[in-house]
Amino acid sequence: MSIRAGRERMTVAEGELRLLSALEALEARREGAALAADERERALCDNACLLAKALERDGKPVFADGRAVLAGLRVEDIARLSDEWARFNREQNPSPVGSVEEQERRKKAWSTRVMSAFNGACSACSALFPRRNGPGR
């Protein structure tokens, strides 16, 4: 039994992409780390291992593991399929703070907000210009 309310599978030319449990996603990440020779290979290997778990045809995995994905697909295909899986995952598991676009808008607004002129200034500088509250002060 699943507690998810949305779709759990998405049809692609190579078969079906399915959503992964948290454990499956962690296992794919660990497998990718073991497969990568250095950090430059890490993203490709992580994506290949994710696809090994997520890509199915007739309910069975298309690839046995991440190494088989790397051997059987081009880099462009791995990138395309992993992007489709990520988009599908975001659609079915939206962030509680809004869409990706909304999150980016909030981050930009936060990073460009007006700061106090004395933010981070020493207390000696602040003493020269005491805060004035109320009318006539």
Which features characterize this protein?
137 residues, 6 helices, 53% helix, elongated, disordered N terminus
How does this structure look, described?
By secondary structure, the chain is of the alpha+beta class. The protein has one domain. Helix content is 53%, strand content 9%. It contains six helices and four strands; from the N terminus they run E-E-H-H-E-E-H-H-H-H. The protein has helices at residues 22-35, 39-54, 66-72, 75-92, 100-111, 123-128; strands at 9-12, 15-18, 55-57, 60-61. Strands 1-2-3-4 form a four-stranded antiparallel beta sheet. The chain is elongated, with a radius of gyration of 24 Å. It starts with 8 loop residues before the first strand and ends in a 9-residue tail after the last helix. Mean pLDDT is 83; it is low at 1-5.
Spatial extent as radius of gyration: 24 Å
Spatial strand sequence of the major β-sheet: 1-2-3-4
Enumerate the spans where pLDDT stays under 50 for 5 or more consecutive residues: 1-5
The secondary-structure element order is EEHHEEHHHH
- Mean of residue pLDDT? 83
Tally the structural domains.
1
The largest sheet, given as strand count, sense and whether it forms a barrel, is: 4 strands, antiparallel
Helix content: 40-55%
C-alpha termini separation? 67 Å
What's the β-strand tally? Answer: 4
User: Which class do the helix and strand fractions yield?
Assistant: alpha+beta
Oligomer: single chain
- How does the overall form come out from the CA principal axes? elongated
Question: Strand fraction band?
Answer: 5-15%
So how many helices?
6
